[in-house]
Amino acid sequence: MRRSSSRPGLQTFIFSDDDVGLLILGELLAAARRGVRVRVLSDQMFSIENRRFLARLALEHVNFEFRLYNPTFNEARTAPLEFAAGILCCFFRFNQRSHNKLLLVDGRFGIVGGRNMDDRYFDFSEEYNYYDRDLLVYGTVGAAMQASFERFWAHPKTVPLAQLKDVAKRIVEAGRNPAPLAAPRLDHAARVTRVQALAEDRNYLQRALLDHALSVAAVEYFSDPPDKPNVSERSEHGDLTATIARIITAAEHDIVLQTPYLVLSRPARKAFLTLRREHPALRVLVSTNSLAATDAFPVYAISHKRRRYYLESLGFEIHEFKPYPGRSEAAIDAPKPPGMLRSALKIRTRKAVPLRRDTVRRGLHAKAIVIDDRISLIGSHNFDPRSEGPNSENGVIVRDAGFAAELKRAISGDIGPDQSWVVAKKPDRGLLTPINQAIESVSEKLPVFDLWPWRYATSYELRPECAPLPPSDPDFLTCYVRVGDFPEVDLAAKGIYTRIMTAFGVGLSPIL
Q1: What is the pLDDT of residue 352?
Q2: CA nearest 509: which of 241, 314, 302?
Q3: Helical spans, DSSP H, in 200-265
């Protein structure tokens, strides 16, 4: 058998045994049979739970190895009682997760972004998909990616399948002559076949990827260490959060921020507040999820609770993602972002609220920053307390004006009137306005009470005859119509629940 010196590595937070997961596994196993050493590293919490299937993977080929990061009680599957026990007995270790996403080939080609190995990240779900963004990188930066992967792969919290108690039991049961790995039962077999065909189509790959490739001035790869909460290790290697903080606080003109969860940590809020004081004219555009688009309902409640602070104190211009495209479906002549930056539509139902329309919907999952039209970041970091604290994260920082322009154009499409609503201050109501604002200011700081119904801001939709305007423009209210605090959401059964979750949101933000 021909052996190869290439050492592909796939690191992910979620690896599901659905159509996408099985398709990826099939290709990785095919590479292993060709002589390529293939290594897969996934966080244990939300990955494949079928122990017999994992046992079979552990025995499939000498060139293929699958490991899980931080398995609870050294098992692949975490039962509900074990989940509760993990929280009670060892919360800080249980809460520490590897959120990195990286596909590395030959130490030179790397894909970094927000996407996991699951149907809903590749448009395969018929209910709810994620809209995500990845970056394909080639060059010497691969050495840093390789070093990061090796550090995670060799870490004591990374455990081979055969060493997990529940998987090892199935390996023993399988014996020395396990049955061949059965052909997968796919829900979307025709689509899987089409994807496989496109992967072999050189003309398609040329049009979709190579024709849009950019040569850039500088590329840096950053990754948190595998034991991030350990202070000594963080000081030794540094971490992505500190890097993001440095580039944000150095901004002078404008910041474009895209995140699925607008839940900034206390240090992040402080940094943006300082930035606002030092550069009062600095513009911060934010692309995030609406309640209708998100599947993380409690997390949105925290964001909603802090709307006044984000808009008034930090000066954010917030655009909330719609659960389905608007008029853009007809705007076929609108400029399209290059293939390597194009956000892919995705969706699923976890804790999503019911909508007024019964249709497939989408939620924003992309994470990106553009600073002063010259520095860009794409990665796994959500810019929230979890990404800053217990989660390890990774990302690529590109220092290049041309690349920044392309990424900014892509995000600008996401915050356009066809894709997002604008969140802005409600019209002034005389003496009632300062009273409402004062009460809301106090209410948003209370961890167990937030039932004040008259909110500072609401959502707006652009009138068809108008061009987009910032909320600070004097003609904003002429060109935009109010669509309510939670557009497209059926609040009949969720209105009270929204306020309840908002009440507990602040205390839960580091966990969520």
Answers
A1: 74
A2: 302
A3: 202-208, 231-237, 240-249
Please report the beta strands in 315-404, taking only residues with DSSP state E, as ranges in sequence order: 316-321, 344-347, 361-364, 368-371, 375-379, 394-399
Q: Which segments of 168-207 are extended strands (E)?
A: none
Torsion of Cα atoms, 401 then 407 then 409 then 415, to 10°: -140
Short-list 116, 79, 120, 109, CA closest to 8? 109
Which tokens is 453 given? Answer: 């119904």
DSSP 445: T
Give the total residue count for the chain.
512
> What is the distance between the alpha carbons of residues 485 and 481, in angstroms, rounded to a whole number?
12
Rg, C-alpha atoms of the chain:
23
* Token digits of residue 239: 């971490």
- Cα–Cα distance between 15 and 321 in angstroms, integer? 26
> Token pair of 213, please?
């490739």
Contacts of 330 (CB under 8 A, 6+ apart): none
Render pLDDT for 338-364 as a digit per residue (tens, 0 to 9). 333 433 333 333 457 778 888 889 999
CA distances in angstroms from 215 to 362, 372, 450, listed in the order given: 32, 19, 50
Report CA torsion sign: 130, 394, 146, 137: positive
d(CA 491, CA 485): 11
**Structural domains in the chain, sorted by start:** 9-178+187-200 (3.30.870.10), 216-508 (3.30.870.10)
Q: What Å distances lie between residue 332 and 327, 328, 329, 335, 376, CA to CA?
A: 10, 7, 7, 8, 28
Helices (H), 8-76: 19-33, 51-58
Question: Which is higher by pLDDT, 355 or 223?
Answer: 223
Work out the burial of residue 99: count CB atoms within 10 Å of its CB; fewer than 13 is exposed, 13-18 middle, 19 or more buried: buried
Other C-beta atoms within 10 Å of 182: how many?
Answer: 8
Q: Encode pLDDT of 155-203 as tens digits.
A: 999 999 999 999 999 999 887 677 777 778 889 999 999 999 999 999 9
- Rounded average pLDDT over 104-114: 95
